[in-house]
Design brief:
Layout (H helix, E strand, L loop, with lengths): L3 E6 L5 H14 L4 E6 L12 H6 L3 E3 L19 H5 L4 E6 L2 H5 L14 E7 L9 H15 L5 E4 L9 H18 L3 E6 L1 H14 L4 E4 L12
Parallel strand pairs: 1-4, 1-5, 2-3, 2-4, 5-6, 6-7, 7-8
Helix pairs in contact: 6-7
């Protein structure tokens, strides 16, 4: 992974789930990781909700300007987010808000996002109505790129149906992202999957001769009622 990874996509696509898992992987690889929660557009499923877990793993979390739970829904971003952008000893993961509206916050940090050490990944859930087609995904990508004046450098396939996800859902997402790659040239970097699907999915991707790797994930960012 690059020194800075910005994670974008549609609302509810799984950006935060990917951000958390990417942060834990980077920490396991010995990197000094900082996770920046830049989502000031959507009050649900944000990285800041997992501050205790992140800090227990030795991962710094920067989010709002106040640091109090009572103010966590205010649209304010801490100036400390510049720390991993300016200091190259850190690996920075930026969990950005959804769509072009949520991605707008990156405009104030654009000067720090140099092409040589920054990736911008778009997380795609092909079971979301707005991104269940080639046209929908390309429309989303173009709207984000037009807003932040930076190119998406990679795709992350995360097509699922929560607890009811099947291997067919995952393969549907892979095929969708393959079509997006053919149209845009943006490569598929990762396909997210829980452990139960990793082996079968890896074999299927190999047989389809599709680029990218399977990214095993643990589920953190999901509502408690899914476990009932």
């Amino acid at each position: 992974m690059n020194r800075i990874t910005c994670i974008l996509g549609h609302y509810g696509s799984g950006k935060t789930e990917f951000a958390l898992n990417l942060a834990f992987r980077a920490k396991d690889e010995g990197k000094d990781v900082v996770l920046c929660d830049l989502d000031i557009a959507n009050p649900y499923f944000r990285s800041r909700e997992y501050q205790k877990l992140l800090e227990e793993k030795g991962i710094k979390l920067y989010s709002n300007s106040f640091g109090y739970d009572i103010s966590e829904d205010l649209p304010a971003v801490s100036a400390s987010i510049k720390v991993p952008l300016q200091n190259k000893k850190y690996t920075g993961i930026l969990d950005v808000g959804g769509d072009d509206l949520g991605s707008r916050v990156l405009n104030q940090y654009r000067s720090y996002l140099k092409a040589e050490d920054t990736d911008l990944y778009c997380v795609i859930n092909g079971n979301r109505p707005e991104t269940d087609s080639l046209e929908g995904v390309i429309k989303l990508i173009k709207s984000i790129e037009e807003e932040i004046k930076l190119p998406i450098t990679g795709l992350v396939s995360n097509t699922h149906m929560a607890n009811w996800t099947t291997i067919e859902d995952l393969l549907k997402g892979v095929d969708l992202c393959k079509n997006v790659t053919e149209q845009t040239g943006i490569p598929l970097i990762y396909t997210m999957a829980i452990d139960d699907f990793v082996e079968e999915l890896s074999q299927a991707i190999k047989e389809k001769n599709i680029q990218g790797t399977v990214f095993p994930v643990k589920l953190f960012a999901r509502p408690h009622w899914l476990n009932l």
